[in-house]
Amino acid sequence: MSEQRISPRQFMKARRPERFSDSVGNDLPILDRSQLEYHLDSLTSRSQELDFETFARRLLERTVCPNLLPHTGPTGGGDSKVDTETYPVAEALAMVWFVGNGNEAATERWAFAFSAKKQWKPKLESDIAKIPATKRGYTKAFFVSNQFISDRARSAAEDALSKKHGIDVRIFDRSLILDRVFGNRLEQLAIDELKLTIAIRHEIRKGPLDTVREQDLQHIEERIATAIQEERRTPVLVEDCMEVAELARGLERPCTEVDGLYTRAVRMAKQFGTPHQLLKSFYEHAWTSFWWYEDYYQFIELYGEVEKLATGSRNAFELELWNNLHTLLYMAIHDGNLDEKTIDLKGRTATLLTELNRLAKEQERPSTALQARTLRLLLRLLVEMHKGKQTAC
Q1: CB crowding 21-35: b at 16 or more within 10 Å, else e
Q2: 98: CATH
Q3: Between the N and C ends of the chain, which has fewer C-beta atoms within 10 Å?
Q4: Contact 106, 88 (CB under 8 A)
Q5: Are 279 and 309 within 8 A, CB to CB?
């Protein structure tokens, strides 16, 4: 019989269920992709141009930048020549954003145009031409269309218009809209703004752990915002950012959101935290990528950051964290999710052993030396087990 394996996520959830969401719900999707695609294609037949503009703006706020002005005035942007634009945001507020490119969006002026016209190209050229003509200093222009636009046509139009008008032009078509909606679990946003009628709804019975997590997450986010505004940027702020990321992970929020929160924690640790907090932020992000989202390519990238920070450390606990991630390399290779030669397993193992040998020789710190020797024995055992499996194959 072939060996039946469970995924890392299944294994961790079975062993540590308290670290995952305890809410119970119906897993059926609330909105079918083909249904939304048809609805977008037929907007004009229902005179939903304004609904599309509102939907597009709110979708961009959730995936590109949060600081967009709401639409006012007649259809087509009115006298402002754009349908919406970014507004300046204080660096202290933009620092805590975790979606899109907050630093650029907070300081630059971006223009957005929305269109539901079937002949998208003339509308694109017309709308983009109006943007630099305003002389307002826009640096980026986004054109959002409900039409399907091929990759070749989109790239050619972006390059031509960027060169012609001297601003960075980006086109969002129907396919990209669909990817953003379903990739970020924003189906309810589409239902609400496009006034879709859905027969099946996704109902969730929130568990007690999730209820507490959501309350804690909201409370800590408020504490983070207050600390930023009052310029209390200390290692305590970094700990709060790390805790929010862990709470979102426990709630099983979308991967993009949890990744954004861990990226924010790393950013805060680099600016206001300790070296240990920076290593711990990378470690928790790597641990999450492996066990919760099974993103092995991101895991190996984050592993490299932990390896770099832990090399030369005299803290045995930091080498223990490094060794924990190193153990996962063998698991991923055994399950066929990573290639041993591609990730240079032998080289990474030798590097870790060298560091453990260094700490094991510190006789003036007997506890540290003992812990390093223990980790070294476990690592050697893992290496021998791996050799045995290779020989058996």
Answers
A1: bbbeeeeeebbeeee
A2: 3.40.1350
A3: N
A4: yes
A5: yes
Domain-embedded: residue 316: no
Per residue, what are the HEC states of 252-294? CCCHHHHHHHHHHHHHHHHHHCCHHHHHHHHHHHHHHHHHCCC
Q: Considering only CA atoms, which of 262, 241, 335, 258 is closest in space to residue 293?
A: 258
Give me the long-range contacts of 222-229 (CB less than 8 A, separation at least 24).
Answer: 224/96, 225/93, 225/96, 228/92, 228/93, 228/95, 228/96, 229/92, 229/93
Joined tokens for residue 316:
């045995």
| AA identity, residue 12 | M
Question: pLDDT digits over 314-349, tens only?
Answer: 999 999 999 999 999 999 999 999 999 999 999 999
**Of residues 178, 232, 200, the one with CA closest to residue 59:** 178
Q: What is the pLDDT of residue 72?
A: 56
- CA 98-103-106 angle, to 5 degrees, is 100
- Whose structure tokens read 């939304």? 36
19 burial level (CB within 10 Å; 0-12, 13-18, 19+): middle
Residue 77 within a domain: yes
**Pairing state between β 168-172 and 140-145:** parallel
Helices (H) then strands (E): counts for the chain = 17, 6
How many residues appear in the chain? 393
Which residues fall within 8 angstroms of residue 288, CB to CB, at 6 or more apart?
245, 249, 258, 262
Residue 261's nearest CA partner among 236, 229, 285 is 285
Neighbours of 221 (CB within 10 A): 16
pTM > 0.85: yes or no = no
| Furthest CA-CA distance within the chain | 80
Which pLDDT does position 199 carry in this prediction?
64
CB 283 within 8 A of CB 307: no
> In DSSP terms, which residues pair with 144 in a beta bridge?
114, 172
Structure tokens that stand for 201 in this block? 């709804």
* 232 alpha carbon, distance to own chain's centre: 26
Domain region containing 189: 33-193
Domain count, the chain: 1
